[in-house]
Amino acid sequence: MRRLRPTTVRARATAAAVVVVAAALALASVALLGLLRANMLRNAERDAEQQAAAIAQLASAGRLDRMRAPLHGADFVQVVNARGRVLRATPNLAGVPALGPARPLRPGTLFHTWRIRPLGGEHRQRVVQVTTQSPEGLVTVYVGTSLRDVDAADDTTAAALLVGGPLLLALVALVTWRVTGRALGPVEAIRAEVAEISDRDLHRRVPVPATGDEVARLARTMNATLDRLESSGIRQRQFIADASHELRSPLTVLRTQLEVALAVRDPELWPELISGALEDTDRLERLCSDLLLLARIDAAQPVVPVRLDLGELVRDAVDARLGDRVPVRVRAEAGVEVEGSELWLTRVVTNLLDNAQRFAAGRVELTLRATGPADARTAVLEVRDDGPGIPPADRDRVFERFTRLDDARSRDHGGAGLGLAIARDLAAHHGGTLTAEDSPDGARLVLRLPALTPAG
Q1: Is pLDDT above 60 for 410?
Q2: Rounded CA separation 369/121 (Å)
Q3: 441 vs 321: CA distance, rounded Å
Q4: Could you give all domains of the chain from N- to C-terminal order, each with its CATH number?
Q5: Which of 14, 26, 174, 220 is deepest in the core (most CB within 10 A)?
Q6: CB neighbours of 165 closer than 8 A, spacing ≥ 6?
Q7: Beta-strand runs (E) in 11-136
Q8: Is 0.70 surpassed by the pTM of this model?
């Protein structure tokens, strides 16, 4: 049975259409035959009943001798008394005994369907039986009309349905197969194109049909997904190249210092050489830590939802900093609460302060406030410094990984170009934004996070 089941959408759609149409056709055929038979039978009964009523009136008046030959629509007439004796009959029933096997008991009208062999043939007869009171007692009038036309119409209609039904089903199957094939053609083209796209061919795109329907929307969605995959692949390759370059430099310096320390025989120079090697080792450790954090962010690890007082978090982060070259002036509004990871938000604040400390001339300011209505508050954290600032053209590029601006933000300041990139990714992971905005002097970095409604 499983082998007989259609395996493609096209075949399943065709089979379903044929089954539905077949069921509807069967019900319609039964209903059509029933209505046709009932209508023709009702017409035959009406003519026979009218004649039977007219003859019954003659019998009631004792004037059966005035009975005439049956009119159009009636095949025979027979009048029988209560003792079963035939009083009157049409010539085609001459010598035929009473049709009714039972004697009439009370006046009324009955309908029967009989086969009257003396009339010839095997066609059925619809017989109207009217019993009435006459001077001779109860008299029954039998008027019969042939159902030849009814049976012929039934046979003709049934034969037409038997022949036309399969032809109609074949036509439905053909049309459904063709229409479904045309509808699924673009889907197959999309599938074939996607099947040929490898990790080295992410620039390729699937064809978008001009129909504007669900298939076209599927193609556009697939191309948008390929765009994201291509962008992700480009970022990944660029990240690997940049990381390799960044790791190569301190490793080369560290190797050189160790080789010099090994070659120098003067013990008095060893502390200086070892100190330099430790500095490069520390730089490597920080860089590896940053790379690991970026990998965790890219993996979209969920943030544990913890209610935090952002003002307290900022003060704790500033108090924990020792040996800052420039003191940090903090102005934090009370009651600004957010939801997120304390560790990651602390890292955001730390990276922003590290960036400001690296380039500030003599002033670093951190302000925190909440804006917006009570049901849609936004926590706004600004870090300003009086350094060389960020040119407007570079305010987006400064957040790219391993990006260092020429001049002020150079390798000489000791940064690897990951601090602001990590801060922006962590802000986005918390549903916020981090931007570089206008400032009259120096740099101004603004962090915005969704704020919670104050408790109580």
Answers
A1: no
A2: 106
A3: 25
A4: 12-151 (3.30.450), 214-296 (1.10.287.130), 303-450 (3.30.565.10)
A5: 14
A6: 22, 25, 29
A7: 76-81, 86-89, 108-115, 124-134
A8: no
